[in-house]
Write a structure and sequence with these properties.
Elements (H helix, E strand, L loop, with lengths): L2 E9 L4 E6 L4 E5 L13 E8 L5 E10 L9 H5 L12 H18 L5 H27 L6 H23 L6 H22 L2 H10 L1
Parallel strand pairs: 3-5
Antiparallel strand pairs: 1-2, 1-4, 2-3, 4-5
Amino acid sequence: MRRSGELIQWNNKGGYGFVRDDTGRDYYVHISSIAGARPRLGDSLEFATTTGRKGRLSAVDVTIASTNPTPRPATLREVKRPATGVSRYKLGLRTAAATLMTLLILWAIGTDRAPQWIGLLYAAMGAGSALLYRFDKLYALTGKYRVSETNLHVVDLCFGIIGGLAAQEVYRHKTVKPRFVATTWGIALLHTLGLAALAFGWLGALFGWVSG
């Protein structure tokens, strides 16, 4: 079944970008899949869909239905806008995970099972991670040099995961590529289990059992 959508990101030098269909889902598109001239931001495209080599949704057999006479880069406000029919107040899975970890931190500190600096560390690194995702999204929209995926993962692993998950949700960024998504959720699971053990005193019980 063919779909229609708008080209919301385009790296003219690299020859690739993303097209968003009427439901708000994004598809990777490469210049080799487009018939005719190079597209421009804002162009309306018609395309078929497939799953690419890396597991991401891709647009193929693409034709330009209509061109945008005044192309311009998409803005972060447009990127953050929810898809048609989706409430802006809908809680996404990444936001839910970030909220859960935040509650575990507050519970651990409130029950004196964790020092206050743990919360400050997560807050500071989370803010740094969110900024990195924001910059990477801006660079993607303008075709500039990108923040490496390794750096994003390292900051998330080093206590920035709460801000990283929130930024992914807000900017709708890095949520398609299976390997990146799997690594992100692995980091989130590691921190969630660690915080749960801290908040509910499992670490103390474990150490007491081992020493006994």
